[in-house]
Amino acid sequence: MLAHRLSGPSFASACAKLLEEKSGLVIARNEHEASTLLQEIGFYAPALKSRLLLIRDSETLPFDLERAPSSIMSERAWMLNRLANNDVDMPIVIASAVNCMRLISGKDFWKSAKISLSLGDSLASKFGENLSSLLELGYAEAKAVKIPGQYATRGRVVDFFPVGISHGEDFHENTPVRMTLDELGHIQSIIKIDVLTQESVGKPLLSLDVFPNREYRLDREFVESFRSKSFTYHDNPRVFESYKVALSLRDHPEFMSWIGLNPSNVTTLVDMLEYDEVLADFGVAQAMEEQWRLVETRHIDIRDDLSRTCPPIDMSWRSPEATQRALDAANCCTYTTPVVPSGMKRVGTLDDALALLKSLIDEKTPILFVMKSAVRARHVKVIGSMLGLRVATDVSFEQFIAKPVGQAVLQGTLTNGYLDTVAGYRLITEYELFGTSIESSFDEDIGEFQRKAALQGLVDIKEGDFLVHATKGIGQFQGFETINFTGTEEDTVRIGFANDASIFVKVSELDMVSRYSGGDETKVKLSKLNHEAWAKGLQKAQEDALSGARQLILVRNARRRMAGLRMNEPDEDYDHFVETFEYEETPDQKRSISEIIRDLTSGQPMDRLICGDVGFGKTEVAHRAAFMVANQGYQVALLAPTALLAEQHYLSTRTRFEGTDIKVLQVTGNKVPKDVLKVIRNGEPCYVIGTNRLLQNDVLFGRLALIIIDEEQRFGVDQKEQLQDLRGDKHVLAMTATPIPRTLTLSMVGIRDISVIATPPARRLSVRTILRQPGNSVLREAIGRELSREGQVFYVHNSVKTMPDCAARLAELYPTARIGQLHGQMGKAMTETLVAFQKHEYDILVCTTVVEVGIDIPNANTLIVENADHFGLSQLHQLRGRVGRSSRQAYAYLLSESSPGTKEHQRMVAMEESSNLGQGILLARHDLEIRGIGEVLGREQSGHVHAIGFSLYMRLLQQAITVLDENPQADASELMVGNVNIPLRGRIPHTFMADKGDRLAWYQRLMGSDSVEELDHNMGSLKDQYGFIPTEVVEFYGYVSDHIVLKSLGLEAVQVHDEGTRVVGAVSASATRLEMILRQTFGNKVSETDRAKTFLVSRPLDEVIRGLVEALR
């Protein structure tokens, strides 16, 4: 490369200056620096922003079998398409050194790759009849779209998760959409949908761009060339999976390594366009040499792998020498000016940072502060006033550098500052001053009805799965059939029982059917039809549910009667504390905070559970509550289950509470400083963080008002009893990532308040979870991918004794990697090791499960778990939460030798399937189904749950609480497990919903609605997902609505009888109330019968049903 000196205090500023009127290729050392250049060039020259095109690296290894993350594929496709079609005048392409070495498809491919869809377009004209062209583009049909590259059709609705979507000149994002069609197949509407709930969200879109789900053309020419060439490098390539799928024109990850089969079809970013300028940062040549060594090492690895093809390197990569020649031909200029650091670096406390800043100010060099957020810009003004300075806010960057004087602050995105010795000023960034940057969040939300459908519904049920029929017993799902009943066809669910018996359950009775979740499915016994054993077991469960409900109500009512400390409403101090939060709150965080403030100011003791996925912001919600209480003169205690987690909480809380008057104290270990115990005993306002050491007798709180419990399920029985003694009339806030069965249970029946945080933070991606057999090849792949992007790796080896051997084995695979070890027996060295890992003094941390909670290291984005089948789902979910805490794609490798079909393997598959963000709650359901009920309601109740299943037991418990609230003397006979027998109206026709499994799930979801409000919401979701509601479904809605209302009266049946109608009350019904409503509605048309709670009404059936429904509403 030419040693040409670009002028400017930084590479970004030099590029911005040189490319004002020119096109260019700007090459950074790595992906991170390329992303930084995009922001910084835009800051220095805002007029260039529309011309900047960042080509993301694929974040895959050479010859990788893992595809690029979908979000990156979308960005690459969109940018390369714009580049190939000359959509941008004088483009400035920014890419990493690695990206410039990869072969990519040429301009012809990208020109033809984009398919634009707009309102009014015919979908068939774009993708062919039955959307056949989507298959050719690499898309796969699915029942529900969950990852890019999928589509689903239902009625007049097409759900589509495209690789690439844009709606707006400069706006691009990766999200699934729902297209509603008119009768002719033209697009009527386009709207985004939520992956978890499959419901539409946000504002309608006008258009979207769709790209192939691959970066090369997979056609006959490619396949024939691949088959021919594979024989050149292998004796018998027919045994390889890639060769087999190629015959049917199906894609395979190996094909990306064969992209250069036809040299005329490929190019590189260097050769794709003729740029006016090609600019490279210092160190680019070295970065290419390092990448080439990785390419050669990986090539040796796959050459020894007899399960796959091994193409030559030049089929997908250009060597550093060849790349160098291309750069020389383009007159590449290299930036060689040494950048002088700003001198500001956030270390230690806020006071330490201010002292350093003051020393820089004393040097009399003018300072420009560049803050990413308006909040931090205000903070700089406050800091200036603390130091006796006036910080100007009314100058632009150009104005300041033209005449540097004093101190000024402006908004902009810069990562690194500098000292410009020529112009004579110092530039300090938000990151350098505060150590973090404030980010924005997504605006997504998940409602309560959607959560219930996800937790309790029959979605994705398979033949052979266990079901519970409330009055028949435990059976197995045998399919979905249409049966002719007295001349009328009705949809039914076939359930098999013991001795090859089976029944057909009408859809009108599906509220009697639920999943069986209660233990090891290999030990489940099918019930015998019409056998007294089920009735006896059900009766015992009813009695137990009533007893359990009494206990829960006693606890609830006792707390309700207590006069809790009433906090004042938030004040200015609280508002200032909120402003210092490093991120913009997500909608779920805002709602949770509002609920907590309401609790704290109510005058009753708070008892709330915050359930949120790992890294979704539960701790900040707890901090808000802690500040509100401590700032009003009270004490707060946070209990963590381990010393390491307590230490992490202490360090992060101390930083978060900087600048406040609240003392943050730590109580762990045997020796607690006497002055700390004295502060606690004297009732001084403070925030005390510790382990169960806080529960010991020498820790006496003088003015405790709020107890925060992190991961309550991890405390032992004795500790929980001590907690129960401590809480009394105190406010209690518990936090958990995956709700354990007990907490899930209590929140479901309404005993404990729950706040769910299911909105992902800004630009957070799902962790890609990969289940693999253990071996050196998978370790080289996983670790190599992370280290190649300068990231870090958690390696979970849950044995202290053999940990040194494990670390030595990894050192043999990666001799240059810095490897640390962490386990619970290290004492104080544990914290020191973790801090060193946070500072990137280690590349790989071999550790036990001591890291499963509370560790926040955004640069660590690969997790490898040995013997993953030895862990429970909740623990695996916590471990997976250690990675994916930044905007990078993260990976969790679960290494397991478990056999398919075993409980252990089911857990692994559940983890793979629940990779989407915010699905911790769904894992709780999987845990119930796979691991069993465990500690849901204690050992006594677990036996009954095993006998009748979790869902039915929960239904009885919910009823018991409702019944006892109305009548404390009620007995078990008043718990109703049946439904109301009234004539069925309407159905979900197969012409509207062809898939039987979908029909079953929707029947159960509609019939399982507990209120008309919930039914209305579910009908709205149905219309949203299918585009319209047929007349038969509207009739079925009316039937279900009537059923819900009549059920509230405790009816068993409303039937035709001779000339009139017979109304039968269930055992749980109130005879007095039933007769009163009947006589008020029908007067002397009502007569009693010999049977208790049974009446005759001499009016037609339809009129009686209508009259009762109107009276009850």
From TrEMBL:
Keyword annotations from UniProtKB, A to Z: ATP-binding, Cytoplasm, DNA damage, DNA repair, DNA-binding, Helicase, Hydrolase, Nucleotide-binding
Subcellular location: Cytoplasm
GO biological process, one term: regulation of DNA-templated transcription
Key word Cytoplasm present: yes
GO molecular function: ATP binding; damaged DNA binding; DNA helicase activity; hydrolase activity
GO cellular component terms attached to this protein's record: cytoplasm
EC number: 3.6.4.-
SUPFAM superfamilies: CarD-like, P-loop containing nucleoside triphosphate hydrolases, TRCF domain-like
Gene3D superfamilies linked: 2.40.10.170, 3.40.50.11180, P-loop containing nucleotide triphosphate hydrolases (3.40.50.300), Penicillin-binding protein 1b domain (3.30.2060.10), Transcription-repair-coupling factor, D7 domain (3.90.1150.50)
InterPro entries in the record: CarD-like/TRCF_RID, CarD-like/TRCF_RID_sf, DEAD/DEAH_box_helicase_dom, Helicase_ATP-bd, Helicase_C-like, Mfd, P-loop_NTPase, RecG/Mfd
Residues covered by the Helicase ATP-binding domain: 599-757
Main location: cytoplasm
Biological role stated in the UniProt entry: Couples transcription and DNA repair by recognizing RNA polymerase (RNAP) stalled at DNA lesions. Mediates ATP-dependent release of RNAP and its truncated transcript from the DNA, and recruitment of nucleotide excision repair machinery to the damaged site.
Protein family according to the UniProt entry: In the C-terminal section; belongs to the helicase family. RecG subfamily. In the N-terminal section; belongs to the UvrB family.
Protein name: Transcription-repair-coupling factor
Gene: mfd
